[in-house]
């Protein structure tokens, strides 16, 4: 088996690590890896619970950060200048390389912008199955609710942010991510998971429908795409369920499998919000049921 960097990256004061040989050898060779792609304003650390749960089910988990976001989270917070010119294309190329180094097509899951990236990666023929959780809009999804615009406004309010890192204040994070949590729990989530991100990615997402060759372009009618599940949260402020529902409709003419699941009461922090286990298990159970027979 190829040696991969598979531990969740970015834990504060914790160096990036790899799976030990003992753990890697315990994973059945017939199971594909699970690649987890985080979204904007958080790091790969946001997947820590899902990664542990999936490893307990015998999967190799690859939870790598975006380019410039791999390593210690505190160091990134102190100096995020390496993110200034990172855009969607660079992020997609990064994960394309990671996926290409695996022994077989993986299960690809992504949250927020990561969910949009999953769709593009599947469109490129990568992955055995994909899951987009609170997936940001790809090109062609045009109706954005006011809560989405408010959540993104802190990054979009200054054109100079396109060429530098952006982050959220604790109050902004509470509105955007943890609106279903009390103040104490929201603060704890912010302190552990909030991370600066590349403003260029946010601007490219916001302007996708005005960009002729947007890197967030997907061929919705493609027939030979791997199965895709879209998961939405009923109380999500950043990517309300209406965005995922629009995305689902875009795929209506495709012969490939595209399913939708909505969890009431779930915020944009659904991968860490209490009750995350139900969402994580549903995502992996669905993925397992849609894997090609040869990988089961």
Q: Can you give a write-up of this model?
A:
- 36% of the residues lie in helices and 11% in strands.
- By secondary structure, it is of the alpha/beta class.
- The protein has a single domain, classed as Rossmann fold.
- It has a 6-stranded parallel β-sheet, sandwiched between helices. Strands 5-6 form a two-stranded antiparallel sheet.
- α2 packs across α11 (276-289) and α6 (146-156) runs antiparallel to α7.
- The radius of gyration is 18 Å and the shape is globular.
CATH architecture: 3-Layer(aba) Sandwich
Helices and strands, in order, run as HEHEHHEHEHEHHEHEHEH
What is the CATH class designation? Alpha Beta
**What is the distance, rounded to the nearest whole angstrom, between the alpha carbons of the first and last residues?**
17 Å
What would you report as the Rg, rounded to the nearest angstrom? 18 Å
Integer count of domains: 1
Question: Could you say which structural class the secondary elements and strand pairing correspond to?
Answer: alpha/beta
């Amino acid at each position: 088996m190829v040696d991969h960097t598979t531990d969740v990256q970015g834990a504060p004061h914790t160096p990036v690590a790899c799976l030990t040989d003992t753990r890697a050898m315990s994973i059945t060779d017939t199971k594909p890896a699970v690649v987890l792609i985080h979204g904007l304003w958080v790091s790969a650390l946001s997947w820590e619970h899902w990664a542990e749960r999936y490893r307990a089910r015998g999967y190799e988990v690859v939870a790598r950060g975006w380019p410039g976001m791999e390593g210690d989270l505190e160091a990134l917070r102190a100096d995020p200048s390496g993110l200034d010119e990172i855009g969607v294309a660079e992020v997609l190329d990064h994960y394309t390389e990671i996926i290409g180094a695996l022994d077989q097509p993986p299960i690809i899951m992504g949250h927020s912008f990561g969910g949009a990236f999953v769709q593009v990666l599947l469109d490129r023929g990568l992955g055995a199955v994909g899951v987009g959780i609170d997936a940001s809009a790809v090109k062609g999804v045009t109706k954005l609710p006011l809560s989405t615009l408010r959540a993104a406004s802190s990054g979009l309010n200054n054109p100079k942010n396109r060429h530098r890192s952006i982050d959220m204040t604790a109050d902004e994070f509470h509105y955007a991510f943890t609106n279903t949590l009390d103040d104490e729990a929201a603060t704890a989530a912010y302190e552990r998971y909030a991370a600066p991100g590349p403003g260029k990615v946010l601007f490219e997402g916001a302007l996708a429908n005005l960009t002729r060759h947007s890197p967030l372009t997907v061929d919705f009618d493609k027939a030979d795409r791997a199965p895709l599940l879209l998961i939405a949260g009923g109380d999500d402020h950043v990517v309300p369920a209406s965005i995922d529902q629009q995305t689902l409709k875009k795929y209506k003419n495709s012969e490939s499998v595209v399913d939708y699941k909505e969890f009431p009461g779930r915020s944009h922090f659904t991968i860490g919000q209490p009750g995350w286990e139900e969402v994580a298990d549903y995502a992996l159970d669905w993925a397992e049921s849609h894997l090609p027979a040869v990988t089961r």
